[in-house]
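Field guide to reading this record: the first block holds the primary sequence, the second block holds the structure written as C-alpha cells, and the final block holds curator observations. Each block starts with its own label. This record concerns Major facilitator superfamily (MFS) profile domain-containing protein, catalogued under organism Ciona savignyi.

BLOCK 1 — SEQUENCE
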Amino acid sequence: MASFSLTGLLSAPIYGRFTDLTGSTKAAVIFSNIFEIGGNFMYFVASSPYMVLGSRLIAGIGSGSGSSILGMISRNTTKERRTAVFSQLMSLRQLGLLIGPAFNLFLRKLDFYLFGFHVNLYSAPGIFMAALWIIHELMVILFYRELQFTGPDDEVVQPINNQGSSELSWKEIFKDLLREEVVVCLAVTFTVMFVQTGVETLLTPLTLQLFGWKELPNSIFFCIAGFVIIVSFLFLSKISKWVADRQMLLGGFIVVTVMYAYFLIFIIFAVKAEKGSTWVLVMFCIYCVIVIFGLPFVWVPQASLYSKITSEQSQAFNQGVRLLVMGLGQILGPLWAASWFHDLPVMASVNLALVSLILLMIIASYRVLTVAKSPETDEPTERTRLLSHSINA
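BLOCK 2 — STRUCTURE
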C-alpha cells in the first residue's frame, strides 16, 4: 500500500500541471490507465516479492490522475453546488471500497491456468483489476467528451493551453498555495488522513485483543462502517446548500477532537478490562459510530473549500498538491500507529494533541476560511456529466 501511495502522490501534481496547461482531462486519464493496466497485470504474473512491489509502484503512477479529474470537477461545478458534488463523489468511492472486497468471495476460489500463468487467490485480483481497467480505458476513449463550461452569457470558455495568457507562473502558483487559508486546508488534509489511516490500521488487531474478533466479525464491522459513512456523505450533500463549508469544517473538527479525547480515556481502561467485556464493546461502538458519521463533515468541506479558495487556472495542479499531502498522511499514519500498538495511550495522546492543534488553527483562521465573491461575473453554468476514476478525494 505504501508503494502504491508513494508513486501516486508523486505523480498527482504532474498530471495536474499537464491538465492545467492542455485543458485535457481525457488524455491524462487515458495515459494513467496504461499504468493501472500494466501494474495490475504485472501483479498477476509476479513470481517474486520484488515484482509485487514493482507492480504496486507502477499502478500507483496511474492513480495520480485523480488530480486531473478533481480539477475538472472544480472547473465545471458552481461553488454553491461543489460541496454536494464532492460529497457524492466521495460516497461513490466509499461504495467501491464496500463492494470491492466482496469480489474476493469468488476470486479466492479460482484455481486454473491462463496462458501458462496460475490463477489462484493470490494472482486473481491482478488479472481481474487489469480487465476492469481495460474496460474503463475503452469507455473513456469511446464515450468521454471533454467538458467546457459556459459563462452567464453562454460564452464558451476554452480549455487552458500553454500559449495562453491565462497560464500562471510557478511563482504565482506557489504564492497562491502559501496563503494562510490554503495552508490550514492542507494541514487538515494531512492530519485527518494521518490519524484516520492510523486508527484503521489498528482496528483489526485491536478488536482481536479486546473482543477476540476474527475475519468474519471484522468484515461485518467494516461493512456497517461503510454504510454509516455513505449515509453521512449523502446527508452532508443535502445540507451543504444551507451550511457554509467553514461552519461544517469547524463543527466536524470539534466533534473529531472530542471523540479523540474520548478514545484516549477509553483505551486507557479498555486495555486493562477483561476480554469481551460488554461495557468495552458498547463504548467502542459509540466511538466508532460518532467518528465515522462525523468524518465526512471534516473531509468534504476542506476539499471543497480548498478548491474554491485556490486559483481556478491551476486547479488540477492544486488538487495534485492536496493529493500529495493526503498521500503523505496515508503512508505515515499506519507506520506511526503500528509502531505504538503496544502502548496505545501514547499513540492516542499524540493523535489528540495533533487534532487539537489543527482545531486551534481552524479557529484562528476562521475569518479567512471563506470564498471571495467575484464582483464581475456570476458562477459558470454547472456541467457534471463525469466518468469515475480512482480518486482519493
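BLOCK 3 — OBSERVATIONS
Residues 149-165, 375-391 have pLDDT under 50 and may be disordered.
The chain has one domain: 2-148+172-368.
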